[in-house]
Structures are given as C-alpha cells and as structure tokens.
Amino acid sequence: MVLDGNSSTSSADVASGAVAANPLDFSWHLIEGQCALLGIMMLATAAWNCARDRRLAAVKSSLKENGEKWGVPLIFHSPDSVPRHFVQYGYRGSYIGTAVIYSWVVLPLAGYVLMMLGCYIAYVISDKIWFPPNAQFWTDFFGSWNGLMLPWCFWFTIVHVVAGIASKFYNTMAARSMMPVDDMESATHLVVDEDHTITDDAPDPDEDTAEDSWLSRKVQKLKTRFQKAQTRQVIPIVVGEDGTRHVEYTCVRYVYSEEDRAFLPKGLADTQPMDAIATLRRGGLTDEEAEESYATCGPNSIHVHVPGFLEALGTEFSDFTYIFNSVGTWAYVAYSTWNIGFVWLAMIAGSGIYRALFIIRPNQKKIAKMAAMSQMCEVMRGGRWKEVEASEIVLGDIVKVLDGDDSKLPCDGILVDGSLIVNESMLTGEPMPIAKAPVENNVNAKVVEKLNKAYAGTLALESTGPNWGKSVLLCTNIGALTTRGQLVRMVLFPASVSFKYNDQLPMVYGIMSIYVIILVLILLFATNLGSVVALYLTVLCTIAMTLNPMLPVSMVMGQSVSAGRLEDPKGPYQIKCLQPGRIPIAGKISTMVFDKTGTITKGGMDFASVIGAQNAQFCPAVTFDYSDPTSTENRAKIADDNLVPLVLRRALATCHTVKQLQDGRLVGNQVECAMVKTAGWEMGDKQMISPNGETLKIVRELEFDHHRMTSGAVVRDETGQLQVFIKGSYEKIKAIAWPGSVPANYDQETMRCAKDNYYTLGIAYKTLPAGADEQVAGLPREELERDVAVCGLLLFRNEMKADSPEAIARLKAGAVRSVICTGDNELTGIAIGKKCGIVTSELCLRGTMVNGRLAWNDPDQEGAIVSPESPDPGCQLALTREAWKHIHTERPDILEELWPRCVVFARMKPDDKINVVKYFQSRNLVVGMAGDGGNDCGGLRAAHAGIALSDAEASMVSPFSTGRKGKGAAKDDISLTTVPDLIREGRACLATNLATFSYFMVYAFLLTTIRTAFLVINGLNLGEWVWLTMDLGIGVVMMYFMTQSRAKPDLVAYRPTATLLGLRTISTVLVPYFAAAVCLVVMLAVVKAQPWYDPLNPTFDIHILPRLWMMKGDNYDSPVGVLLLFGVLSTTAYVNTYGGDFRQNIRHNYGIMIVYALFLFVTFFMCLSEPNEFNCIYRVNCDTTSSLACRNIPVLKQWSVGGTGGCFLGPQIKYWQNTTDALASQGLLELNDSHWHAMVEEKCLPPKLTLEKIPQESTIISTGKGFKVVDNCTGPNNCYAPDLKCIFAVILAVYVLAHHAFTQVFLLGPVAKKMRRLQQKQDAQRLIGQEVQSTSSDSSDDGLI
Question: What is the distance between the alpha carbons of residues 1139 and 1046, in angstroms, rounded to a whole number?
C-alpha cells in the first residue's frame, strides 16, 4: 500500500528552496507537530490536575480536622414532588487552569477552521482551482493529494475526538479549570452536583474472592461519576454592591449565608397571621428594610433565558450528535466528493437549524412571555403607599390588591385586610371565582391556604377593604418560588420518563458499533485501496453510513408532523403539544388514569336534594329542580318546615364561604354556590337574610381544612343565640358527631346516595353558650367541631359528560385499561365508573380500613364484609386513600396480586395520584393521565403522557392539553374523546418512527455490506449519483412521505411495538437484508459466469487514483449493487408505510406511491434498457458514447465531481491502456504520465497506434472479451446481454413481490394475528394465575412495550 502516488514537485523548486526537499517528509513533520502539540497539552493538563488534586486533598483534610465534610447539601425546591439531593462545592477561578483546560475547547474550534481550509486546499491540488498564491504552489508544497490528506486525517481525528469529549463533559472541564476552596466566602464559582450515593450490595456468602465485588464497585463508581458529570452545573457567583453573594440555579436565587457557610434559597417566607397583621399595623417595611430584602432576594421576576440566534445555534450544534455527524460529512468532502458531503451537510444543518430556531427557541420565548409580568403596584413602606414596578416587590411588603381588567396578583401572599375575589383558573384549570378572607388575629389562628392565601398570576376580580378601599396582602413568595413560578419551572425542567424505545436505542448503537468494528477489520486486512488516506476515509464513510445521521432526523420529522396535526386549529384533534417526543410514547399507553370531576364528569355541581335528620332519624328526601335553582318551587320547599327543618334551613343558608360580587354573581366553592342559590337567602354584610326577613349574623367562617376535611360557620340569630354549622364528607361528619344524633341507618343511607351517583356531604350543628364575638373568634376549631349533632345530608349531582362513555368504549376497544383516581367518595367513583364503562363487573368491592386493618365489603349488600376472592374472584375493586396507602406501603404482596383488578381509587390527594401513576409505571406499563385542574398537575407530569382537559396556564405542565369542545350533547364540555384521539395519533407516530428506524437499519446493513463486498472483491465502488439519489431521493423524499401517513379513525385491540430488539422489528430489518444479500450473491454469481464477463480492479488494472473512488463504478459488478439498492431500499420504505392497523391505507398517501412507482420504473428501466444517457448517470448498462452525452444534461455537470459526463472507464480500458503503455515503453509513443488515461478531450480514444492494434469496434472493446453481447454498445462499456437482463429483472421482481408478501402475510396479516392471539392468551393465563409480569397487560406484537 502506498502513501503517495503522483508527486509533481520539480527539481528546480527543490533546488531553489521554494518547498521542502521531500513533500512527504513535510507531511510527517506536520503530524509530528500535531503530536507534539497534543503531548504538550496533555502534559500541561496532567500537571494542572495533579496540583488541583493536591489542593483538593488539603481542603478535605482541613475540613475533616474541623469535623466538617467537603461539599454542603443544597436545599433544592423541586418543581415537582420527586425528591432530589444536590451538593454544593466552592471553587475559585484560576488563570492557569482556565488556559490549560479551555485549550481543549479552543483546539477543536480552531482545528475545525484549519480542517475546512485543508479540504479546500485538497481540491486546489486535485482540481487546480485557485487559492493564493496559486494551485501549483500548494501542489509543489505537499507533493500530492495524499501528501496533504495524511496530516489532515490525523488532525481531523484529533479535532473530532476532542470535540466529542468536550461536548459531553463541558461542565466537568469547567469545574476542573478551577481550584477547590474550603471556605465559600473566597469562592468565585459554585459547582452543583446531584448526589448519587453508592450503596454496596450485601456480600455473597458463596463468594470466595473479592474480584467480583471489586469489579462491581469500580463499575458503580464509574457510573456514578458519569451521572454526576451529566448533571453537574458550574455557576458563577455574583457579588452585589452591598457585598451580597448569590447564584441563580433552576431560576431560584441562592444567597450565601455566613452562618450556614452555604448558599441558601431565597424568595419565600413563612409568616404567621399575627406577624403579618403586626407588619400591617406598623406601616409595612421601611425603605431600608425593603432595600436590604431586594439586595438579598433579588427582583420579583422569573428569569427565563431566551438564547439569541447564534447562541441557540451554537448550543444545538455543540451536541455530540452533530459532532459525530460531522465525521461522515467532512469525510465525504475530503474524499473528493464535495457534492455528497454538502448534501449531508445541508440535511444535518437544516435539521439543526429547524430544531434550534423553530422548536427550542420559540418554546423558550413562549415560556418567557408567560413568565413575564410587568405592571405597576402599590406597596406600603414606612406607613405610606408607594407605587413600584411588580419586579421591585420584596418579601414582607404590604401590597394593595388592585382589581379590574387583567389585574393580576404580582406575588404570593396572605390576605391581611379586606376581602378579595380571584380567578385561579391559571392554577386549577377551573374558571370559578374564589373568595379570599383575611387571616384571623388570634394566637390560635393559622394560615388556611385556600381561604387566606392568594397566588401570583391569578386575576383579581373584586378587591374591597374597610381602610384603603382595597384589600391588602403581605408578600410571602416572590419570583420562581411563587406558585406561578413553580409552574414555569415545571415546564423548563420537565420530568423524564422511561420508555423502551429510548432505552434500547443505545443498545442498538452498541450492536451497530460491533458491526462497524467487523467491517473496519475487513477493510483493514482484506482490501488494498492503494492509499492509507483512502482507506482511512473509506472507514470513516463506512461508519457514517452505518450510524446514519438521518435516523434521528427522521424521528424528529415524524414527531413534528404528528405535532402539527395535533395542534392544527382547524384539524380534528386541536390538542396542544409541548413535547413532541411524548407523542409516540402516547401510542404505547396501556393504562389510562382519569380524574373524575371535570374530566369524566362535567366541571360543575348541581344541588339536587337534601335529607334532613331529627332525633337521630332521617326525614324524607327533598329533591330540587337543579336546572333552575332559583325557581319558586325550590324556594317553597326550602321554606316548608315539614320538608326542611329549621336547623337544616339555617345550615344551608350560612354554612359556606360564598361571596357576592357587585354585579350579583356568587363566587366560591362550586358546591356551596349551588347550595346558596337553591336556599334563596339574600347575602348582606356578614349576614344572611331569609325571604321572610329572618337575619343570621356570620360571626366566624370556618374555611375548608384539608387536614380536618370540614368547613363551616358560627352564626348568631336575632335572639342572640350562637350556633355552629359544620359540613364535610359524610364519613367525617359521622366521626365527629355525638353518637346519639347519628341515625341508625346512616351508613346504609349514605351508601345508597353515593351508589346513586350523588356527591354526598354530611352536615351537623350544635348550640354554643352565650358569648361575645371576640370570644368565639378565639375558640379552637377542635372545640367548635366537638360533639356536633347530625342535621342532614346534602346531595349534589355531578353529571357525566355526554361523550365520556364513547371515549371509554373506544379506549377499551383499543386495549387501554382505564381507572378512576378521584378525590370523591369510592361509591360515587364506582357509580360513575359503571355509567361510563370503566367498572364492568357486576360486583365492585370496596377496600377500606377498619380498626387499622384492610377490609373488603360489598356495597350492594350494605357493606357486608367479604373476601376479595369471594363471592366473585374476578370482581373489580375500589380502594379508599387509606386502603391504598396501607397496601402500597405495608402490604405490597397483596397489591401485587390485586392491582390488575383495581379500577377506582377514591379520596385521593394530589400526591396520592402521583403515587398511583408511578406504581403502574413500576409494573412496566406505559401510563397516561387525563385531568382538568391544578391538583392534577403532579400526576399529569409524572405520567408517560398526560393530557390536561383545560386551557388554563396550569395545563402547560402537561405534555398535551386541549380545550376542544365535544359534539352534540357534549358541545358545552371539553371532550373526553381527545384522549383516544391522542392515542390514535401516538400509535400512528410510533408506527412511523419504527418504520423509519427499520428503513435506516436496512440501509445501514445493506449499503455497507455491498460497499465492503465490492471493495474486497476488486476495489470497486458505486457512482456518485447513486449515493446522492439514495440520500436525497429515498433518504429524504421517501422518508418525508413516510411521515405523512395519518392515523386510522379507530383504535384496535393491540398497540404497536416500541421495542427495537423485538422479533417484529428485527424481522423488518433482517428479512429484507438477508433476502437482498441472497439476491446479491446470486446476481454476482450469474454475471461472473457469463463468458463475456471481464473483472476489473480500477486502482491496479487501469491505475485510477485511490482518491477518485467515484470513478470506480464502471464495471460489470457495480450495476448489480445499484439495481439491488434502488429496488430494496425503495421497497423497504414503501412496505413500511402500509397502513396496517394504526395508519390509514397507503393508497391515501399519494406522495409515497408516486415516488415508489418512479423508483421501480427507474430500476427496471435501467435493468432492461439499452445504453442511454440516463443509465450512464448511475453507470448501469452504459457505454462510452452515452457516457459522453451525459455532459449535456443540466445540473449534473455542475454537481458532478467525476465520472458523470466523462469517459466510461470500463474493463475494456485496460486493454487500450496496456497496449498504449507497451508502445510507450518501446519508445513508439510519448505519454505525459506513467500510464495512458482516457481523456474527454480526445473523445476517450487512445493514440492512433493503439487504435490500429485494437480498434474501438473490435469485440474486445465494444463488447466483452471477444464475445458479441449486444449490437449497440460503443467503446468501453458494462452492457448486459438481453438474457441476463431478463434474469436480473426476474430476480428483482421476485424480491419485490416477496417483500410485499412477507409484510402483508407475516407482519400485517394472518401470521401476525395468530401470534397476537397467542400472546394475549398467555397474558390472560398469567393474570388468572396471579402471576403478573411486566408485560401482562400489554398486547404488543411481540409482547413488549
């Protein structure tokens, strides 16, 4: 193998000293210089690291002597409920360390410029294009193309290896450039690491040596260090004018505390009611206090960084993926084919620009716009009101709440004076106005979140106050630590979920890497390309072909197309998508968790009925017309003492916290508003007035307490008598009531109401001793609620959405299991579940806790205690919150057996919903969740794919959200059918992603196999336009049309596979690959058996330079590869777009049908036709005359780097060349080079003496080896005989038909259906046997999710 083959340095240049004595020596000197530079940098880095490590050891030793530890825990306010532990370290910048470490960043940046310059000079040398001083100078300087490319390849490798390492470990390198310090006060940077604790497994008693445990510890340590490197953040410490030191991490400001010797988060304060009122009375903060607080906590704003265009592009293209893709791109450019390299560069650059500027940056701008708040506010400072910008509000400020159009609260705070009515839909998703009351001024008072606290970003509908005309609040949270800020952080830092497709992709790349290594070894030891440089570039191109950069691009393309369909405002879905990567995950949902109220049912509550209780007995139920709550009939029933007892009537009128706006609208809890409307009492100032004039004064409101699960009021009647009214869940009311007041049939009656789908509340009362209002205000709530007497039940109707049964039925048809996870009663959940189709068994047992033990009862048998296996072992189950927590934490063995039967989870709080979602995920199920309010945010975020049925800002934390209304009877409600619609599109997207994956795997295996085989056989290759057509025509155009297939209108009873290593996916890759490999062997064997077949090694037989690989396709073998690649790859793309059960029939995808038909026509046309200009573009059935005619085809000449439009360098050329060279050696001819080469200027003909010996018309030249193959092949050619053309056409046709048949019969037809039935049968047997495996409820094609 040679390094240089065409030195053109003149002796005169050498003698004059214009160039080095030996250009190749200069190339080696360049390599030595590169090695020297690399060695110096490595030695400097090693020396710096040694010094740094010694300093770190000294710091740790010093801290250990003082009883301290290196690194301080960082208090992290997680935007979700997932606990994460971080450690903060102090570092100080060093000029030396920065110079040493960042030199490794500068190296690839500067090296990339030199690399591109080297590529250009290579074309200067090879194509004689201009570059100062001139082309001949550079030719003489390096001697040849090889002389330049040898050091270029070495530099190219260094640049990409260093760039790849820097992109993956940039933050670690930044930390390594600084010196650790033992005192945070002297630190200039803060390094934050996530704490990945190593826990050694218990030792194996059978282990004789420590080798395995030592190895496992080493592997675990390496894994931990890698995890830390991935999450490490280096943050510069900012020093304020007053010396305050702070950093910003995940949008939260951390300020250095000298006392704690650590950075602590700022932006929230835990203020007690009496302290807040005291702050108000002393006139708020002073100006000095406000300035100090501002300097410490920073502005009241949420800083969302929006990168500029250059920063966005720089961040995107510094990713490791693009660095790897750069290897293949520039390898093609360097390997004399700039056209192919530029096509790859355009594809990679286009996808990166689109992602950076049209996906990531707009999303950041959208979030920044949502987070921004600019408005003027009034704050009290030093006893005077002062107007400031919202960002200047500080913790502890007294803020006047302004109402009106678009008046948003600037911060979180507790109300200290006046009353406030807000719209919290941005937090809860519910547009219902909420009334806020000031905190109580007594020692027992506590801040009640729902009653006393208002949140940033909520709309102030009405603000009134006795002192300043408006309500005022004390600021407790600012910036990113407000409730609104937490929502923004949830969007900025989304939770990651595990999905088999993503998890297996590294394994696939690992397998492909092994395959690449095998190919590289074959190329190294079984080929002779005539040049080390050519071999190296060939290896790089092979790696790029195997790990095709278009694979991730095709995934993003498919997901972007699906996201566009989902978001189309005029389309059928109208679903907003914040994370397109979750769309294919939605296609694998096997379990759907539904909130009840506002999701399955309508958002509102109607007051339907009341059941009074007197003397421990229930009165007859009184029903109301809830379609018209204010009707005369309803008022008459309320006023009738025989129907509604006086105590209950008073309770209905006063036991609430409803407020009335100036326009007469009622605001507050939906349940209470419905109750007050029906009661018909008039609301006054702290009093309620009945239609007949009775007045009840509200002495004290008892807001709903989440811990006590009750709410109520203390009232005084006209005689001065005090009464307490308490309402809450019927279980809670029974628990706190005096036993003698509880009707004997209380449980049976409440169960009956719940089973009848009533939202049931209990209500109770008691009379208080005479006392002043101030005394009542100071009574503990426990005392007020003790020994109350039951006075009735309140029944509310929460109607189901009209299209909910349809949605659940569609999910069931699609093999998606649905469960209800609600804060409501389990009996109501069961009733709704039966009505919508989630609960399908006749018997659904309740799981409750009785005396600390789990008990199962039959709701149809008045709560009779039964076993979950009796009377029906297949019955479904409903769990209360207490039962769920018990079996989840204490009896996981029971839960493992019973979870497939659990369909209702009741009385669940937001954290419980998250736990339910995560438990299902722990079963290796892909879990979706649908909810409507802010209390569902955690579950929506934790699920694999959450969809918020809301337009509120709170829905932004969910990957998907929608406000699409239903049709017909559901036209006023957000449709639940959006859930099956999302899954439909997700399945189509997943099927498309797997289809493009399969195509690129076939591409990688087949293309590299054919290319390597041809290189091994005779150093052959394919023409340049073959590669361009495959990359553009199939790799881009057909891939685009593959993504255009739309989802089928209905869900089928199984999900598309998401495994990349399952039987189905592997078969879509290996079957066409091995079938094509067989065709390749057969076709090559047939062509080699022809009597006219003439082998050719272009490098050694006709002396084509190693770098001109694009000219090595003019032979009898390469057309076999061209025909196979076109036929196989286009067919693979087409059959992978068959509709199947998840996408519409391919006949609806006109684009791919037209392109596929075009490719098949081209393939068979080239196979069967006589020589022509089109064939010669791809060097199939081509001769010299047609090849020269290609020069007249527009575009091709400008974009061709050689071969197209030139001489056809077929096997016959070697006879002309050998004869001409022999004549030259005899002195009969004079040649400009060591060998004669066909030239276009000479019409590709040899000298006249050669033509006299071997004329162009001879059978040696114009046919093959003396055989007359065809009549119209002129000059050197690779024309096939008619009978061989027919054989090849038949082989290609058989392959195409077989591939279609395999897909239709095995992948989409009866074989696939039989395998699915077998899988489902096995799953059912496992469930019946209570042997629940991770895939038991996932009926994918291969049983894997």
Answer: 9
Tokens for 1087, please give them: 């062509």
Closest Cα partner for 360 from 313, 399, 322, 400? Answer: 313
* pLDDT for the residue 1337: 37
Contact 147, 24 (CB under 8 A): yes
pLDDT digits (tens, 9 = 90+) for 1136-1159: 999 889 999 999 999 999 999 999
Report how far residue 949's alpha carbon sits from residue 931's, in angstroms, rounded to the nearest whole number. Answer: 6
Which range, of 39-48, 294-303, 544-553, 595-604, averages the lowest pLDDT? 544-553
CB of 651 within 8 A of CB of 715? no
Q: How far apart are CA 783 and CA 711, in angstroms?
A: 14
Contact between 297 and 255 under an 8 Å Cβ cutoff? The reply is yes
**CA-CA-CA-CA torsion sign (591, 593, 599, 601):** positive
- Give every CB contact of residue 1345 below 8 A, 6+ residues apart in sequence: 500, 588, 590, 924, 925, 926, 1055, 1058, 1059, 1334, 1335, 1338
Query: Distance between terminal CA atoms of the chain?
Result: 51
- Average pLDDT value for residue range 228-243: 87
1220 half-sphere exposure, CB direction, 13 A CA radius:
22
Listed ranges 132-146, 654-668, 1070-1084, 1232-1246; the one with the highest mean pLDDT: 1070-1084
- H or E stretch at 754: helix 746-755
Query: Nearest 10 degrees: CA dihedral of 122, 125, 131, 133?
Result: 130
Q: Look at residue 22 in the predicted model and tell me its pLDDT.
A: 62
What lies within 8 Å, CB to CB, of 703 at 6+ separation is 437, 448, 450, 451, 452, 657, 711
Secondary structure string (H, E, C) spanning 557-624: HHHHHHHHHHHCCCCCCCEEECCHHHHHHHCCCCEEEECHHHHHECCCCEEEEEEEEECCEEEEEEEC
CA 1274 to chain centre: 59
* Backbone phi and psi for residue 1245, each to the nearest 5 degrees, phi listed first: -100, 150
pLDDT digits (tens, 9 = 90+) for 514-532: 999 999 999 999 999 989 9
Neighbouring residues of 356: CB distance < 8 A, sequence distance ≥ 6: 312, 313, 315, 316, 317
pLDDT at 883 over 70: yes
SS3 795: strand
Q: How far apart are CA 634 and CA 617, in angstroms?
A: 23
Name every residue whose Cβ is closer than 8 Å to that of residue 54 and which is 6 or more positions away in sequence. none
Element (H, E) at 748: helix 746-755
Largest distance between two CA atoms of the chain: 138
Q: Is residue 732 over pLDDT 80?
A: yes
Specify the pLDDT at position 45: 96
pLDDT category of residue 19 using cuts at 50, 70 and 90: very low
Return the structure tokens found at 506: 């590294």
> How many CB atoms sit inside 10 A of residue 575's CB?
25
CA-to-CA distance for 910 and 919, rounded, in angstroms? 14
Q: Are 146 and 169 in contact (CB under 8 A)?
A: no
Three-class SS of 1254-1319:
CCCCCCCCCCECCECCCCCCCCCECCCCHHHHHHHHHHHHHHHHHHHHHHHHHHCCHHHHHHHHHH
CA–CA distance, 471 with 914 (Å, rounded to integer)? 36
Structure tokens at 357: 């500027």
Give DSSP secondary structure letters for 39-92: HHHHHHHHHHHHHHHHHHHHHHHHHHHTT--SSEEE----SSS----EEEEEEE
Q: Which helix (H) or strand (E) holds 1008?
A: helix 978-1018
Write down the residue that tokens 């729902």 correspond to: 450
Q: Cα separation of 152 and 331, whole Å?
A: 11
Q: Where are the alpha helices (DSSP H) in 318-402?
A: 320-334, 338-355, 361-371
Structure tokens at 1005: 């295996």
How far is residue 472's CA from residue 381's CA, in Å, rounded to a whole number? 13
